[in-house]
Amino acid sequence: MKLRAEIDAKQVRIVALDLPTSWNLAAPADEFTSRMFSAVNNMMLDVLAAVARKDYEDRRRRQSEGAARAKAAGLYKGRPANTSRNAAITAMLRDGRTWSQIMSATGCSRTLLAKLTREQRDPSASQSAMS
């Protein structure tokens, strides 16, 4: 709805080739006709936005269902860990380098760094995270 409010505030008119009711917005018309076509177009935009959102959610749901089925069948294991990078990060942690230094040197995320720090402190944590 934020985008819709911005469109209304700037009085932008959306004209689509495959939406004939939008063509009338481009042509000058009387006040009543202009408001009528504006209302119809706003309704169409709302419907199209709802359909697009539903389609997006359906695709995401199907993707996660497929991944869950593949995991259950033992076919999907996710992205493998970058063991050489993780070993370098662990060595830097042992050497006492700061997180900022490690992140800039390796390009790793703060989340990965926290995970490797936890695993270094408690090696059993990496085994429980894998299960």
Key features of this structure:
mainly alpha
Strand content: under 5%
Total tally of structural domains: 2
Low-confidence residue ranges: none
- From the alpha-carbon coordinates, what is the Rg to the nearest angstrom? 27 Å
Helical content, roughly?
over 70%
**Shape estimate:** elongated
Whole-Å distance between the termini? 42 Å
The largest pleated sheet is described as: none
Q: Kindly state the mean pLDDT as a whole number?
A: 86
Total DSSP helices: 7
Structural class: mainly alpha
Q: Secondary-structure element order, as H and E?
A: HHHHHHH
Structure description:
By secondary structure, this protein is mostly helical. It folds into two domains: 2-72; 83-130. Helix content is 74%, strand content 0%. The chain has seven helices and no strands. The protein has helices at 2-9, 20-26, 31-72, 83-94, 99-106, 110-121, 123-130. Helix 2 packs across helix 3 and helix 6 crosses helix 7. The longest helix has 42 residues, at 31-72. It starts with a helix and ends with a helix. The mean pLDDT is 86.
Structure summarized in a few sentences:
This protein is an all-alpha fold and 131 residues long. The protein is built from 7 helices and no strands.
Question: Helix and strand layout, with pairings?
Answer:
Elements: H1 2-9, H2 20-26, H3 31-72, H4 83-94, H5 99-106, H6 110-121, H7 123-130
Helix pairs in contact: 2-3, 4-6, 6-7
